[in-house]
Write a structure and sequence with these properties.
It comes from Streptomyces violaceochromogenes. The protein is of the alpha/beta class and about 280 residues long. It has 13 helices and six strands. The protein has a six-stranded mixed β-sheet with strand order 3-2-1-4-5-6, sandwiched between helices.
């Protein structure tokens, strides 16, 4: 097992396997919790990969599920060990959306709808600094600086020379006109957006305000997809105090259909780039 295995993704795969073993045994999460004298929520968090899992947890669960093949037990134990490794983002301390970063780090493609701001992976440093400080006015300067560095580090996924993240972004036109930082910051940001949109693995579309009510009217969301068939797609919805991760096929399908509607209602790639360039020039006046 490679030492740089993504711990977030490893937890997801381990949780999926433990859920499969429980279902094969015909047991509910509540029944398993009663057998192990733990809460049902702990079993649920272990299965959805939102909680670190120890080798002891795996051993106890395999005992409940009566797994007789020691090779399976050993494999799951190794996965538990790998899942407790630290990703690069842990060096920055307590990051509230660390689960998302782990998923993004391993994703093959990402589709994003942003109604308010330029999406994080395409932000300049100056824009990111203004967004983070404006959105977290009570945070310390050190904490905000840390979040800026994490955001810029994440952008390595789209600038990598080998297998960069495929990124598709639909931006509400309002995000182009909201002055974040200053007019020079906005000009630099939009010029950067145009430059990045010309990369073959990055697509940027703008949803014009004339559209009115649309499929994304309820707010921002992202859809992450993975190369490994064992990893199901995830819909991520960012919140102020907590985030939401949707993995059920019907949920993912609904958001995927919504995204297709957004793409259809948006300007095409060339029209979007022309609009961004035009607004960028307005900031130079």
């Amino acid at each position: 097992m490679a030492s740089n295995v993504n711990p977030t993704v490893r937890r997801r795969r381990l949780g999926q396997e433990l859920r499969r073993l429980r279902e094969l045994k015909g047991m509910t999460a509540e029944e398993v919790a009663e057998r192990l004298l733990v809460s049902q929520s702990k079993i649920s968090r272990l299965e959805n990969g939102r909680r670190s899992i120890s080798q002891r947890d795996v051993r106890d669960l395999c005992g409940v599920y009566e797994v007789e093949d020691q090779r399976i037990v050993d494999s799951l134990m190794q996965m538990a060990k790998d899942s407790r490794q630290q990703g690069w983002w842990h060096a920055f301390g307590d990051i509230p959306y660390s689960v998302y970063i782990g998923l993004e780090t391993d994703a093959e493609s990402l589709r994003v709808y942003e109604p308010q701001i330029i999406t994080g992976l395409l932000q300049t440093r100056a824009y990111a600094e203004a967004i983070i400080r404006g959105g977290s006015p009570e945070a310390s300067e050190a904490d905000n600086d840390k979040r800026v560095e994490v955001r810029l580090r994440r952008q390595g996924r789209i600038t990598a020379e080998s297998e960069p993240l495929r990124l598709w972004v639909v931006l509400d036109e309002a995000s182009l006109h909201r002055i974040v930082g200053s007019r020079p910051v906005m000009r630099e940001q939009l010029e950067h957006l145009v430059e990045m949109s010309q990369l073959p693995h990055i697509t940027v579309q703008v949803l014009p305000v004339e559209v009115g009510a649309h499929a994304g009217i309820n707010g921002q969301y992202s859809i992450l997809e993975f190369a490994d068939a064992a990893d199901s797609s995830v819909v991520y919805i960012e919140g102020v105090t907590s985030d939401l991760y949707l993995e059920k096929p019907l949920d993912v399908q609904k958001y995927t259909v919504m995204y297709e509607h957004l793409r259809a209602q948006s300007l095409n790639v060339d029209q979007s780039r022309q609009l961004i360039e035009r607004v960028a020039k307005e900031y130079a006046r």
